[in-house]
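FAQ
Q: What does a multi-component entry look like?
A: The components come first, one per line:
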Amino acid sequence: MSGEYILTVSDLSVTLQGQPILSGVSFAIRRGTTLAVVGPNGAGKSVLFRALLGLVPHTGSIEWGGKVKIGYVPQIVSVRDIPISVGEFLSMRRASSPSEALRSVGLDAAVMKKNLGVLSGGQLRRVLIAWAVMDRPDILLFDEPTTGVDLDSEEAIYDMLRRLTREERMTLIMISHERHIVNDYSDIMLALDGCVKYFGDSHEIMNPDIQKVIYREEGLCIVPTVGEADG
Amino acid sequence: MVDAFSVIVGVAVGLAAGYLGAIMVLEKMALVGDALSHVALPGLALGILYGFNPFLGAFVFLFSSALIIWYIQRFTKLSFDTLVGATFTLALAIGILLVPQPDLLEALFGDVSKITGLEAAIAVVVSMTSIVLTTLIRKRIVLGLISEELAASFGVNIAVVNLAYLLLVSLVVAMGIRITGTLLVGFLVVTPAAAAKTISPNLSRYFMLSSAFGSLSAVAGILVSDFLSQPPGPMVVLSGVSIFIVVLVVRWMTKYSPI
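Then the predicted structure of the entire assembly, as tokens:
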């Protein structure tokens, strides 16, 4: 895990419509790391992503390690009402050929002509991943990678992500609610509930004491020292 | 005999209205297109009263209004439909009071009988420019509709793109007023796109059909209005609705599903 920090977040706070959503969030991750962001509903996980993308006003600092390319896979997309084919969607990026991108996520080129709105949950997720990794981003933000996906496809998607992160030395930040996924597929874990409740080894997600801290409001807010978890 | 210039304007403005309207329907801003057009009426009135080009007045009013609702929308997060519905009917009321009575029918329902060669040339240039510029921002708008976050990760500033789009809509609506009048120009923006959307499996087909239906509605309406000696606006609406009905019947008969 050695290497430069690709992202350093210091004392990040977000207030929306007068309500504090995130307070004093600090953490840093190194290039090539997979970070899982966990926490109960309303913990501010998706808001953290929106802050990283510059979509919500915030205080504190978000520093990217140099000029980084960001790939993003959203949890929710509105595709049912838009007549757009997979090929047209992927062609919006000029980075590489759409058929090659589809192959890299295990989809046949025949999917290209299909309307984005009629794809199954698993197919749509794969197309979104293909979109996100097409121009080889340095960091991939992934909001609930397997929403609406069956179990077989879920494993296939995580295996594919693992392959992509290893081959391309891509940094992955994913929001997940599934403990076994966090345990099996991520290196470090950031537990949020309006503030940072835990930042450290992902395998601790299986530790009942840590689970209480993360999900049962028993833990106090902490301010991790940069490098503490991934040193 | 119908004037060639009016047909040229019909083809050009119909194409542009259909093309830009395709985005408006995707953005679920159909009511915006309709209500926005009403704002043009006070602008037309000032042009008539003070002796400058009424369509320039219409454009200035349209774009200023679009700019104001764009600005309010960014801060209040109210939908465009809500803001437009709340404010723009007022503009129609003021416009009706301001427009001199002899010109009111023309302003409300259009008149293509006095189009000059220069006006036709301007309509063609502005329509084609609007289509080209919309093509340049189309990808960003669609991406923002799919997911605002996805667009942001791609470096798209959705607010700026929306503003550029509203400027182009104001231009096309100001020209469409000549054909259909302020009361019915929203139709030219919305109905061709609605018809096209029901039978389009992808974006390129959707934009192409929407433009074609827009142009066909405008030209057919102008020809029929000349034949029946009626204002063009209502005839354009009837032509467009006929196309919509034919498309629905074709879709039903072929059991078409856009997959």
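Q: Is there any commentary attached?
A: Sometimes. For this entry: The mean pLDDT of chain B is 84.
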